[in-house]
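#struct-pred
JK: can someone run the complex with beta-D-galactopyranose? inputs below
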Amino acid sequence: MMNIQPSSENQFGLPTNPVAMIWKRCCRWLALIAPLGLAASGWAGGEFRPGEVWLDTAGKPIQAHSAGILLVGKTYYWYGEDKTLGDFNKTGVSCYSSTDLYHWKHEGVVLPKQAVPPAFRDNGICERPKVIFNARTRKYVMWMHLDDSKYHVASAGIALGDQPTGPFVFQAALRPITDDFGYKENDPNRQKQLGGTYRDMNLFLDDDGKAYAIYSSEGNATMYVVRLNADFTGPETPTVPGKTWARVFIGKSREAPAPFKHQGRYYLITSACTGWAPNAASYAVAGNILGPWETKGNPCVGAEAEKTFRSQSTFVLPVAGKPGCFIFMADRWFKDKLEDSRYIWLPLILKPDGSFTLEWREKWDLSVFEMK
Ligand code: GAL
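RT: done, structure tokens with the ligand placed:
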């Protein structure tokens, strides 16, 4: 075998044979360009390809639709609807873990369908699960939208876990706000009797430790922002409009809420209500999470901006250590093959004036935030 190591050097440290000379030059050249390469690739090791099939570390397509992400230490946990068996709650809520946001390990179905009451299994609905941590009770608290196949039961589901990977134990199904806003007696959603419907939802844990459920209510006409009790297992009681909860975007029919906060201002991205079909997103900003909210309009720009790049908002993840930098997460639903629906993740970078736009990218990585 040819020895390509520099075998001998003269008194000036220069190699005396031609192979060694080439080897040494290559090493020098590599030493020069390596730091450049590292700087250019930033948080190297992966990339996001919005809309493409995303495989987990076992090589299987990730099944975690309507995602919500929780950061615990340095590990991200991605929760979502496991739609392996199509629409409806035939599997449950899945969880994946990652330390780099690119590579995700399947942690299993952490709230299997058997864990929820029978009405919400199989032909029932379990959608938009989100998990936050309660520092007082040391519990991981999951809220979700539970329903029947006609979407008339429209209730919140609450489950608790001791670990981010569960198992989560089901606690209750309820409608957090029961005030009567003049509902009809024959309302199929039975809001007069049971309170305002609870459908597309999210959770938001504020810096002061208080948490909120944000959800489409009143038959999806109006969004509610409801402060949770100290354990995060229900609404703060007594529920007082304008104090512990608020009606927002009244009569505007918004859903798929994705909240985030920056420099004391609250942001909320929502979609219109067109089922699995995509529509234009809109965002609003508020100094107080209970409002008033100022609507700013569609943040998406470029081709297919009016359809949110054929997707629907689900979550906004703050980029750790990068104030003003977030990842916008959405679902590209394939209504005839829901299990094959895709994940759309795009960078969201706030401008100095607090506004932002969302642009389509075929592929990108976390180095986009290093420009910030
Ligand atoms: C959408 C909603 C989804 C799902 C779907 C059912 O409007 O955002 O989570 O409920 O309707 O048609």
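RT: quick notes.
The mean pLDDT is 91.
The chain has one domain: 61-369.
JK: thanks, will look after standup
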